Amino acid sequence: MNATALTSSDDSLARLERLEALSQRLLERARAHGATQAEVSCSEETGLNVNVRLGDVETVESTRDRGIGVTVYFGQRKGSASTADLREESLEATVAQACAIARYTEDDDAAGLADAALMASDFPDLDVWHPWALEMDHAVDLALACETAGRDADARIENSDGASVGSGESLSVYANSHGFIGRERDTQHTIGCALIAGQGDGMQRDGWYSTALSHLELEDPAAIGRKAAERTVSRLQPRSLATGEYRVLFSAEVARSLIGHLLGAVSGGALYRKASFLLDHVGQRIFPDWFAIEEQPLLLHGLRSSAFDAEGVATKRSHLIRDGVLERYVLGSYSARKLGLQTTGNAGGVYNLQVKANAGGFQDLLSGMRNGLLVTELMGQGVNGVTGDYSRGAAGFWVEDGVLTYPVDGITIAGNLKTIFAGIEAVGHDVDRRSHVGVGSVLVGRMTVAGE
């Protein structure tokens, strides 16, 4: 296969112009069909992904995807249709189909565009566009270097699940009949490796990866491989624990799952369906009084920075949790109307959450915990969003006198999320920067651990 570049030149602005012109044409067609309101989303994604295993190339994939979505409203009746075909007859058919669907749906009091007064009008450069002219041959070399370094790092590495290198660009335009047009472009690049140590029933698997907006910020491939090897062999010869109650320290890469459960409980869909254990909890303290989570949508060079949400509503910096108190929900316009509230500018999700730290680094948290369980991996989906009951398979390490003593596997950690949130004793400043949820390791004072 001949080496080709992901991008030979940066034509992203010209492509955005074409997407914007396309969105305007589709809005005009929707008006011509009699729609009282309409919105259009157009996107293009390009990428290169390479996977190697045991020194051989397994896959090389170059992608270029396009998506066009049209939503129309006839009063408060809604219809949506999508296509990837830019031919005029296909675009016309897409609009016509959305309109036909709307005419046959029931009125919905919460349907419609977000309020025009809430549309974003300021579009700063948030430094999220860093294309990488990555050639296939070079991507293969990087992946091989990563895996080779990992396999060579320790004689106990018996096998490999492979190494991968990925680079992607995304362009998108959202426009609606309020006259709003929002354009975005962003990049993301990743190098990762997963290895296997031991043999037979004693095998253990782990890995490591690095992801960034700019390829210049990625960790060195060989360093990623060596860290994957270190993590893998550290899990050999695990033990279980006696069932009991222990202090539990969630490492930074799994601690963000706790924030994910919080977001699920305070998001509009769960709330208006009355399927959340935090229903009617705005204004109530659910975390310790020092705990805070702030959303920073306009964070420069953030992994999920945006001046507007999926409905064109201006995003803004605000607290989700302050002084341990839930200050607001996470709402788009539809769920807000269902609840009799106003959108929080979170249609499509949250943007760069930052969890306040009140402790030092990882070693400080280990020392402060003294004895307990360090969790480095979670398995299963045992969380009840209605009651907050929490039960998940886990693996990690037993900590004695602030020192990792032996790996632990085959256990379950359990509790109720309200109790877990209230029982958080410390959050470290060892933030895992590979996510738009910025949180360090989290120490919970007591949880039930089911083992032997």
Jot down its keywords:
single chain, 452 residues, alpha+beta, PmbA/TldD fold, 2 domains, 5-stranded mixed β-barrel
Report on this model:
The chain has 452 residues and is α+β, with helices and mostly antiparallel strands. The protein folds into two domains: 12-233, PmbA/TldD fold, CATH 3.30.2290.10; 244-450, no CATH class. Helix content is 24%, strand content 35%. The chain is built from nine helices and 17 strands. The chain has helices spanning 12-32, 88-104, 136-153, 221-233, 252-266, 268-272, 333-339, 362-369, 417-422; strands at residues 37-53, 56-74, 77-83, 157-176, 181-197, 204-212, 244-250, 293-295, 318-322, 325-326, 353-355, 372-379, 389-400, 403-416, 424-427, 437-438, 442-450. The strands form three sheets. It has a six-stranded antiparallel β-sheet. Strands 7-12-13-14-17 form a five-stranded mixed beta barrel. Strands 10-9-8-11-16 form a five-stranded mixed β-sheet, with no helix packed on it. α3 (136-153) packs parallel to α4. The model is unreliable at 1-8 (pLDDT under 50).
